[in-house]
Write a structure and sequence with these properties.
about 300 residues, Arc Repressor Mutant, subunit A, D-Maltodextrin-Binding Protein, domain 2, 3-stranded antiparallel beta sheet, 11 helices, 12 strands, about 40% helix
């Protein structure tokens, strides 16, 4: 690259035209420049490269040995440069072979990625998905260092420097096994607090969540007896025990083994978002992926 530091790269276009036409007038017409301008640029090229490059001949100009050696490498380099800066081609998922890395919790995997997965495999059969668990505090760094392309996350706690797209609103419902002996109907607040609850604590070991915070404002407390790190385990727990849980509705509404009830206290839900870095915002492949996922997720 040191050889280019003192050279106006526009002169290389002139040199390519001169080597092709071997005539200053025709090269000027090819470049849409005046003949004197091309003659000035030729003089600069001769000085920069230390070679006359083109010499007068009986039928125009003939290239020197140095110019002949430059002709094909220069043409290939200019072609490669033109290709590199050309507008990106439309993305063809059927022909693409990419690996997309997506950060998602087990809930996001189930509610967002699972509905998209079968269609995604059909539309982009040669592409791969790598699903990762990455905490919100590391999302931006992972994306900045090209280790992550997309994240399915909640609006709360989402890094503000990332691009985002709203997917859906989620609500919490009270869930138990379908034949729970004490819950054939929605409980009142006193019964709700006496039931044995399981809570999802993504960071591990927590026994307090948004439900407990809402109860505390009323001077109440529920009976949380089990804390687990993943939503996927909760459904199995509920179907085999008398435990109950406050869970996102999309996670459980189609499970025939479970009963979904209204809780006697209102718990704020959350917004599910897609997050991505600026570096892939205009990339056709990533635009296609984001649009595909957004279309595949049920609106309700």
């Amino acid at each position: 690259m040191n050889n280019l530091s003192g050279l106006d790269l526009n002169l290389l276009l002139t040199l390519d035209a001169l080597l092709t036409e071997q005539n200053v007038t025709r090269a000027a017409a090819r470049l849409n420049l005046s003949q004197p301008s091309v003659s000035v640029q030729l003089a600069k090229l001769r000085e920069s490269l230390g070679d006359p490059l083109l010499l007068p001949g009986p039928r125009g100009m003939r290239p020197t040995a140095r110019a002949d050696a430059l002709r094909e490498p220069l043409r290939q380099a200019l072609r490669a440069l033109d290709h590199a800066i050309a507008s990106p081609q439309p993305f063809d998922p059927a022909q693409a072979s990419l690996t997309w890395r997506i950060a998602a919790s087990d809930y996001s995997e189930y509610s967002v990625l699972l509905p998209a997965l079968d269609g995604l495999r059909q539309a982009a059969p040669h592409c791969r998905l790598a699903l990762l668990e990455i905490p919100s505090t590391r999302l931006s760094a992972a994306m900045e260092h090209d280790k992550l392309d997309l994240a399915i996350f909640t609006r709360t706690g989402a890094p503000p420097e990332l691009r985002s797209r709203f997917l859906f609103d989620e609500n919490y419902r009270l869930v138990c096994r379908r034949d729970h002996p004490d819950l054939q109907r929605a409980p009142d607040l006193a019964q709700f607090c006496q039931l044995e609850h399981v809570i999802v604590s993504p960071d591990g070991g927590g026994f307090v969540g948004s439900t407990d915070e809402a109860l505390a404002k009323l001077g109440l407390r529920r009976n949380v007896v089990l804390s687990v790190p993943h939503f996927s385990f909760v459904s199995a727990v509920l179907s085999r025990t008398r435990l109950v849980a406050m869970l996102p509705e999309r996670l459980v509404r189609d499970d025939p083994a479970l009963r979904v009830l209204d809780a006697p206290i209102e718990i704020a839900g959350f917004e599910k978002m897609m997050l991505w870095p600026e570096r892939v915002h205009r990339d056709p492949a990533h635009q296609w992926l984001r649009e595909f996922i957004a279309r595949a997720v049920p609106a309700e």
